[in-house]
Amino acid sequence: MPSAGTYTILINPNSNATGNVTLKLYDVPPDSTGIMSIDGPDATLASASVGQNGSLTFSGTAGQRIYLSATNSTYPRSEGLNLYKPDASGNANTNNANIIYSNPWSTGSYTDTLTLPATGTYTIFLNPNGADTGSMTFHLVSVPADATGTISVGGSDTTLTTTVGQNGSLTFSGTAGQRIYLSAPNSTYPRSEGLNLYKPDASGNANTNNANIIYSSPWSTGSYSDTLTLPATGTYTIYLNPNGADTGSMTFHLISVPADATGTISIDGADATLTTTIGQNGSLTFSGTAGQRIYLSAPNSTYPRSEGLNFYKPDASGNANINSANIIYSSPWSTGSYTDTLTLPATGTYTIYLNPTGADTGSMTFHLISVPADATGTMSIDGADATLTTTAIGQNGSLTFSGTSGQRIYLSVPNSTYPRSEGVNLYKPDASGNANTNSGNIIYSNPWSTGSYTNTLTLPATGTYTIYLNPNGADTGSMTFHLTSVPADVTGTVTINGSAFTVTTTAEGQNASATFSGTSSQVATVHLTTNSIGNVTVTLKRPDNTALTSTTSSSSSFNLSPQTLPTTGTYTIYVDPSAANVGSISVSVTNP
């Protein structure tokens, strides 16, 4: 307060606002102060009262490098921290014009390395927010000159070792157009650290101005730059900037990368192999025609893991062009990988581009063939079985049939010669009733082999449905489909301790059910006898249609486990024959 006397607090509400305000007035003691020294013991500032700030002073010399951190803070949040340089006379001065660092601080905060601009007394000023109180401990150390060294392309590995706040750099000579690969085979730092690569300035000299950065990323053991093409001739700088108080060492490996491996391949021609060294990529080109269907695979790879594979279409002029906008397929590849059938979008030169990961070396063999038109056919509900045969790698197949909204069908595969389960989708018609294999029209999808079936499906619309067969990889073979209509399920009723009800299913996919009335807390046991269906699943469902218990059996007689009924209402015994099984089974319920 500038003078003794009575002060007035004026409250001026906004617009037409009304209400109450509770005010609390604090008596703030003088700010806490202290001194500390560079490389001396830690110092703590404590503000025990609301509104109290704190400051520490230390002596510094122009050009001296320091690192300031907060090893501990008990404040409830980040608090304001400013560092002030001395005034022109070298004295402490907290005028805003003297701020050389400002940030919110909490436990673990740090300044990174600061170079003091003048000789004199510096001030660390702590300004807690609002009514925050607590303490903050400061650690202040000198930072030696950054670690430096040289490395040469294709020469020995070189290691940088740094202490708290210290950075490091390695320089090397490079030539415009030279391809290099930089990696870190080892690092002892506790986490990933900042790594920048700087190109030379216009005069060819080393220059770590941000405008010269050509690569930047956090680095740790195993990090690498991928292949870089140097943009100019001169001295390049590898600059390591560890985080916070991190110390350790990082070893760098720098090699030249030969031109990428290239070659050609032709559709239905001989296989072609790409072999690469560290940092080297590879590409194969081939001629293709708009609308042509192809299948690309890798019968063999010696790389240690899956490697990046992109497939590029030609540019508008029909020439090879590996601009990312021309990618039509991209995936990691290894032995056995394949594209599935691709329809070429344009006539011209296509590019298969292999981009191995990190320091991976090896070879990959490619097989490229044309794919004939897909096998097609028709079938009808309750008509003859229909077979799809795909004789060429990458060839798919489809069967269409007419269906009516609400019609119940059962689709199965009595036989398949494919070497494994193959993808089968069932597509509903589009809004016009026409066949449409857009993914949004899929109503059933599963891998299928001999004996597979859909269970009963209720068709959602009237029109042309499509059964679509998509064999895996290089699989070829044939699959026979059986399609029948399913009559309404058999229904009936039973009573607890009453007579059995015999259900008989006469068609594949047909199920049956029997209902009974039950009372909450009543114990009921479902009995199944004279089973001629074979394997069958019987489920007892609550009044809300959720399962209470279920059993699958092929025995002539069996029971469901006794159940204490959870609520009063109508319970359902649901009989679901397996696959194409038909027959009869008697259902009864007793208490218990």
Question: Helices, strands, pairings?
Answer:
Blueprint lengths: L31 E4 L7 E5 L6 E7 L4 E9 L5 E6 L14 E7 L8 E2 L4 E8 L6 E9 L4 E4 L7 E5 L5 E7 L4 E9 L5 E6 L14 E7 L8 E2 L4 E8 L6 E9 L4 E4 L7 E5 L5 E7 L4 E9 L5 E6 L14 E7 L8 E2 L4 E8 L6 E9 L4 E4 L7 E5 L6 E7 L4 E9 L5 E6 L14 E7 L8 E2 L4 E8 L6 E9 L4 E4 L7 E5 L6 E7 L4 E7 L6 E6 L5 E7 L4 E2 L3 E2 L4 E9 L5 E8 L2
Parallel strand pairs: 1-3, 10-12, 19-21, 28-30, 37-39
Antiparallel strand pairs: 2-9, 3-8, 4-7, 4-9, 5-6, 5-8, 11-18, 12-17, 13-16, 13-18, 14-15, 14-17, 20-27, 21-26, 22-25, 22-27, 23-24, 23-26, 29-36, 30-35, 31-34, 31-36, 32-33, 32-35, 38-46, 39-45, 40-43, 40-44, 40-46, 41-42, 41-45
Walk me through the structure.
This protein folds into five domains: 32-142, Jelly Rolls; 147-256, Jelly Rolls; 267-370, Sandwich (Jelly Rolls); 375-485, Jelly Rolls (Sandwich), CATH 2.60.120.380; 490-590, Jelly Rolls, CATH 2.60.120. It has no helices and 46 strands. The strands form ten sheets. The chain has a five-stranded mixed sheet with strand order 1-3-8-5-6, with no helix packed on it. Strands 10-12-17-14-15 form a five-stranded mixed sheet, with no helix packed on it. It has a five-stranded mixed sheet with strand order 19-21-26-23-24, with no helix packed on it. The mean pLDDT is 97.
